[in-house]
Amino acid sequence: MSNTESMSKRFEILDCAIELFRKEGYSNVTINQICAAANVSKTTFYYYYKSKDSLIADFYSKTNYNVKEQLLSILSADNELDQLWNICDMYIQPISDAGPEIVRELYINNMKKDVLAIAPRDIYMKDVMITLMKRAKSSGKIQNPASAEELYETLVYLIDGVAFIWATKNGGFDILAESRKVFDTLLVTQIE
Fold it and tell me: Within its chain, how far is the Cα of 184 from the centroid?
């Protein structure tokens, strides 16, 4: 099996599990149900994942993979701010699609394992985002006087905060709209 086929199968299992979690609730779904939905044996499941927790921990791997695959499309936007937002959107949209219960499980999983897949240093597109911020600052599109590195970290923390509050409020507001608001407040609002 090629690496691409292996990745495809892994993400297929993940997608089936996420859909089951959304319908039935994370704690109500068994590995047997995931295997049936993904049409794989338990052996195949355990080849890719050690447990449901390891499966949910893979959520951001799929997001990173999708961002990497769409990078040319993302960077085809007219300006650096649009490109930055496109990257942010590609991280936020899967969270919105997965739903608040799954996002809560992602946070719990991160805390249990002392892994911060959502921390600024762990974002796959960190260097690209910082480069885009530097360019936007040079061209005057970002007037915030903080460094590109500080802006990047602050943006990640702000959007993570929006996702956390959205998950704890059971999805009670539009996560994309609120994330866009913090993006615009930090990067687009004119500094006087």
Answer: 19
In order of their start, the domains of the chain are 1-57 (1.10.10.60), 60-192 (1.10.357)
**What six digits make up the tokens of 118?**
């959502």
Q: Is 2 helix (H, G, I), strand (E, B) or coil?
A: coil
> How far apart, in whole angstroms, are the C-alpha atoms of residue 94 and residue 97?
5
Residue position matching structure tokens 């449901």: 52
Tokens 């942010």 belong to: 88
Q: Which residue numbers in the chain have pLDDT < 70?
A: 1, 113-119, 190-192
pTM summary value: 0.85
Tokens (6 digits) for 16: 């089936």
30: left (phi over 0), alpha (psi -120 to 50) or beta: beta
Which residues are CB-contacts of 34 (< 8 A; sequence separation ≥ 6)?
A: 13, 16, 17, 20, 45, 52, 55
Alpha-carbon distance values, 29 to 34, 58, 164 (Å): 7, 17, 23
pLDDT for 181 = 96
Alpha-carbon radius of gyration of the chain: 18
Enter the tokens of residue 158: 């702000």
For the chain, what's the residue count?
192
What pLDDT, on the 0 to 100 scale, is given for residue 188?
86
